[in-house]
């Protein structure tokens, strides 16, 4: 079987993945999934699309992750895995969309405005 690639983004995180037939090994930046994401919650988030389709032991996934924090990275990786699974089998799209794995979360950090310390926070007002 050929290698399928996909891209997932969340906040400032970008996940580029390459999926091939295999035994269920997920390698992120040349490190194992459990080593890269020690938190079991983040590991669960990454594996959600695979568990939904009962495909956790079918594919080997090689990931290039950059940018953002660990939460954004795990959610970017989840989106990339869902997109790759749909590329392999288009009938899976409805099940993944129902769980919300196919939707790119557009929220990102609001920019800082001039004359303010943060995006919306103003400097303290002094009457006198």
From TrEMBL:
<dbReference type="Pfam" id="PF00380">
    <property type="entry name" value="Ribosomal_S9"/>
</dbReference>
<dbReference type="GO" id="GO:0022627">
    <property type="term" value="C:cytosolic small ribosomal subunit"/>
</dbReference>
<dbReference type="InterPro" id="IPR000754">
    <property type="entry name" value="Ribosomal_uS9"/>
</dbReference>
<comment type="similarity">
    <text>Belongs to the universal ribosomal protein uS9 family.</text>
</comment>
<keyword id="KW-0687">Ribonucleoprotein</keyword>
<feature type="region of interest" description="Disordered">
    <location>
        <begin position="104"/>
        <end position="128"/>
    </location>
</feature>
<dbReference type="InterPro" id="IPR020568">
    <property type="entry name" value="Ribosomal_Su5_D2-typ_SF"/>
</dbReference>
<dbReference type="GO" id="GO:0006412">
    <property type="term" value="P:translation"/>
</dbReference>
<dbReference type="GO" id="GO:0003723">
    <property type="term" value="F:RNA binding"/>
</dbReference>
<feature type="compositionally biased region" description="Basic and acidic residues">
    <location>
        <begin position="104"/>
        <end position="113"/>
    </location>
</feature>
<dbReference type="InterPro" id="IPR014721">
    <property type="entry name" value="Ribsml_uS5_D2-typ_fold_subgr"/>
</dbReference>
<dbReference type="GO" id="GO:0003735">
    <property type="term" value="F:structural constituent of ribosome"/>
</dbReference>
<protein>
    <recommendedName>
        <fullName>Small ribosomal subunit protein uS9</fullName>
    </recommendedName>
</protein>
<dbReference type="InterPro" id="IPR020574">
    <property type="entry name" value="Ribosomal_uS9_CS"/>
</dbReference>
<feature type="compositionally biased region" description="Basic residues">
    <location>
        <begin position="114"/>
        <end position="128"/>
    </location>
</feature>
<keyword id="KW-0689">Ribosomal protein</keyword>
<dbReference type="InterPro" id="IPR023035">
    <property type="entry name" value="Ribosomal_uS9_bac/plastid"/>
</dbReference>
């Amino acid at each position: 079987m050929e290698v399928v690639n996909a891209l997932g983004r969340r906040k400032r995180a970008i996940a580029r993945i390459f999926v091939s037939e295999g035994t269920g090994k997920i390698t992120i930046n040349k490190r194992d999934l459990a080593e890269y994401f020690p938190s079991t919650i983040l590991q669960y988030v990454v594996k959600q699309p695979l568990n939904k389709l009962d495909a956790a032991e079918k594919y080997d996934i090689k990931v290039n992750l950059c940018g953002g924090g660990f939460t954004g990275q795990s959610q970017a990786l989840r989106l990339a895995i869902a997109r790759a699974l749909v590329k392999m089998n288009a009938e899976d799209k409805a099940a993944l969309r129902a769980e919300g794995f196919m939707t790119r979360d557009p929220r990102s950090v609001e920019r800082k405005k001039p004359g303010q310390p943060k995006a919306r926070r103003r400097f303290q007002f002094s009457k006198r």
